[in-house]
Amino acid sequence: MDQPLRMLGEHACFGGVQRFYEHDSTSTGTPMRFGLYLPPQAGDGPRGRVPVLFFLAGLTCTEETFAIKAGAQREAARLGLALVTPDTSPRGTGIAGASSDWDFGHGAGFYLDATRAPWSAHFRMARYVTQELRALVLEQFPLRADRVGLMGHSMGGHGALTLALKNPGLYQSVSALAPIAAPMHCSWGRKAFAGYLGEDREAWAAHDACALIRAGARLPPLLVDQGLADKFLAEQLHPQLLEAACADSGQPLRLRRHEGYDHGYYFVASFIADHLCHHAELLLDTPAGKN
Questions:
Q1: End-to-end Cα separation, the chain, in angstroms
Q2: What is the Cα–Cα distance from 11 to 40, expressed in whole angstroms?
Q3: Pick the catalytic residue: 122, 153, 207, 263?
Q4: Each residue of 46-57: pLDDT tens digit?
Q5: Which residues have a Cβ under 8 Å from the Cβ of 170 and sit 6 or more positions away?
Q6: What angle do CA 72, 183, 92 make, to 5 degrees?
Q7: Pairing, β 31-38 against β 16-24
Q8: What is the pLDDT of residue 46?
Q9: Which residue among 89, 154, 173, 175 is the active-site one?
Q10: Catalytic pick from 113, 208, 225, 230?
């Protein structure tokens, strides 16, 4: 793949390196940005290839949000995991109204391929994450193509669940923090699905984790964390629907609820090490486990 990368920044971090890149995307037809953390174990030759974990961020976030706020690099360096953080949507699309709402359009791509004009011209985040960006980083950096994990927060948790469910075998580990677990049943999801996909609810079901699990799609053993002081819990997130779908379908799920934690990155930072260890157990030849 001959796809030039433009490095936007590079920072030494816990013995490894945190970088940010931009490239011209064929999926979205726009420049796209992503972050990459390479742990100190990454290097030249087959032994220098490390497992990689993609993190999908939530509404209004960018490729920098997780890298700056989550504090994940320390544990990723200890375990030997690379981290890839794509932006949450294409930017500068020229679509009228694309920047008008914080929960739709720019910064709110919902990790699907839009089928409704004008969004379908650029908002193809599912293709971008699962095909283009994946192929690009696996070719350009010392990463293992057979050890790839996926996790996300909020809208990105929805993305992690649905992209893994819709692409069986593509990801060897999956987790989510405060995911939008049943988007057909919340206003964020209904707004995004109607705007990007139209009014056909059968098309919506193909992007709803609970509906996909009930239809027979499966994931590797799943870890989900949810704060009980999350102001979006009752109306937007619905972890109980995910819990019921998994229980009824035999999908392995470890759902942890935490008193006092809200929706933001203080919550993410509090439990990110547990998530990296969860992925390490499935991705590493000799899992390092918890501290």
A1: 39
A2: 13
A3: 263
A4: 789 999 999 999
A5: 130, 134, 148, 163, 164
A6: 65
A7: antiparallel
A8: 74
A9: 154
A10: 230
